């Protein structure tokens, strides 16, 4: 990942003055989605870039050591090697950016990746994921346990009550404590934007999270009724841009939840390029939180190479 974000003092004055023009944001999102996307070789290249930005995720109640091992293998070999050879990309070290699991599965993921001789980092959700409705003491301890078990990245989730009631100082202090508990592990802050009530709250929560020292801001847990939407993404990446202009600190962005198709991935990459530039097209500053996205990308790569779509048995690890 990129250099850590040290954070800043809480600037309540600038937070209080924020108003987001929702109709303008929605119009801009519609314009992005209506444009023709990249095709052929360019599309394949962009899709491979998307693969390298995926946090390959499993957050299911029936996760076991065996499916964590399978997930880690897929993270190391995200695209079939013969397809990469056909594109002369087999020696480029293409893997996913990270594995993302529950805290109880961190040790399993670390062990599986070590056995595979792979240095892909393990990310863990924490702080009472997905609802954050546990005590602060419990949420802090959950971070510490995940880090002790080998997690290099922590995806914390905020208490939405603090946003909905305008308790910005309380939100700032909680995130600062989470940041301290993470130690050397990078911290991604999940805003659960589908439950924040307005785009203005999304912008304010994004800024407070970055002021508190978040290394990434993330849209959703994937468990809300509404997850990563393009209007929310526009507001959050513009907050990232504003924070960078004000402080010189680069903060990453991670949309998550509902990103299932290769076309979805391309749309998010286009947004990052247009709003933040090429530097935010790398896994240091951009991640895609997804569990099924990789399957569709591999199918599109298969079609690009062979000219036909894959049958189920052609991509057995997808």
From TrEMBL:
This is Deoxyribose-phosphate aldolase. It is found in: Cytoplasmic granule; Nucleus. Belongs to the DeoC/FbaB aldolase family. DeoC type 2 subfamily. Its main location: cytoplasm. GO terms for cellular component: cytoplasm; nucleus. It catalyses: 2-deoxy-D-ribose 5-phosphate = D-glyceraldehyde 3-phosphate + acetaldehyde. One of its GO terms (molecular function) is deoxyribose-phosphate aldolase activity. Keywords: Cytoplasm, Lyase, Nucleus, Schiff base. The active site is at 218 (schiff-base intermediate with acetaldehyde), 254 (proton donor/acceptor). The lineage of its organism: Eukaryota, Metazoa, Chordata, Craniata, Vertebrata. One of its GO terms (biological process) is deoxyribose phosphate catabolic process. Pathway: Carbohydrate degradation; 2-deoxy-D-ribose 1-phosphate degradation; D-glyceraldehyde 3-phosphate and acetaldehyde from 2-deoxy-alpha-D-ribose 1-phosphate: step 2/2. Its EC number is 4.1.2.4. Gene3D superfamilies: Aldolase class I (3.20.20.70). Interacts with YBX1. InterPro entries: Aldolase_TIM (IPR013785), DeoC (IPR011343), DeoC/FbaB/LacD_aldolase (IPR002915). CDD domains: DeoC. The keyword Nucleus applies. It holds the Pfam family DeoC. Catalyzes a reversible aldol reaction between acetaldehyde and D-glyceraldehyde 3-phosphate to generate 2-deoxy-D-ribose 5-phosphate. Participates in stress granule (SG) assembly. May allow ATP production from extracellular deoxyinosine in conditions of energy deprivation.
């Amino acid at each position: 990942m990129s250099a850590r974000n040290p954070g800043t003092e809480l600037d309540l004055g600038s937070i209080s003055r924020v108003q987001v023009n929702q109709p303008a944001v929605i119009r801009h999102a519609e314009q992005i989605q209506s444009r023709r996307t990249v095709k052929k070789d360019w599309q394949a290249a962009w899709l491979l870039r998307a693969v390298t930005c995926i946090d390959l995720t499993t957050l299911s109640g029936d996760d076991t050591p065996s499916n964590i091992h399978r997930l880690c293998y897929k993270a190391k070999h995200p695209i079939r090697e013969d397809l990469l050879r056909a594109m002369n990309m087999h020696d480029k070290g293409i893997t996913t950016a990270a594995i993302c699991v529950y805290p109880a599965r961190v040790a399993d993921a670390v062990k599986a990746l070590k056995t595979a001789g792979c240095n892909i980092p393990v990310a863990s959700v924490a702080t009472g994921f997905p609802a954050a409705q546990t005590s602060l003491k419990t949420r802090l301890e959950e971070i510490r346990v995940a880090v002790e078990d080998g997690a290099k990245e922590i995806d914390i989730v905020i208490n939405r009550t603090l946003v909905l009631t305008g308790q910005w100082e309380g939100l700032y202090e909680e995130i600062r404590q989470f940041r301290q508990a993470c130690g050397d592990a990078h911290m991604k802050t999940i805003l659960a934007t589908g439950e924040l009530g307005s785009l203005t709250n999304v912008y304010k929560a994004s800024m407070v999270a970055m002021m508190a020292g978040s290394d990434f801001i993330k849209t959703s847990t994937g468990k809300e009724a509404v997850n990563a939407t393009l209007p929310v993404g526009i507001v959050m990446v513009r907050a990232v841009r504003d924070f960078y202009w004000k402080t010189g600190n680069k903060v990453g962005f991670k949309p998550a939840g509902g990103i299932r198709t290769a076309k979805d991935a391309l749309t998010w990459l286009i947004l990052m390029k247009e709003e933040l530039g090429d530097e935010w097209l790398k896994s240091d500053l951009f991640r895609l939180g997804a569990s099924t996205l990789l399957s569709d990308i591999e199918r599109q790569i298969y079609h690009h190479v062979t000219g036909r779509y894959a049958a189920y048995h052609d991509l057995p690890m997808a």
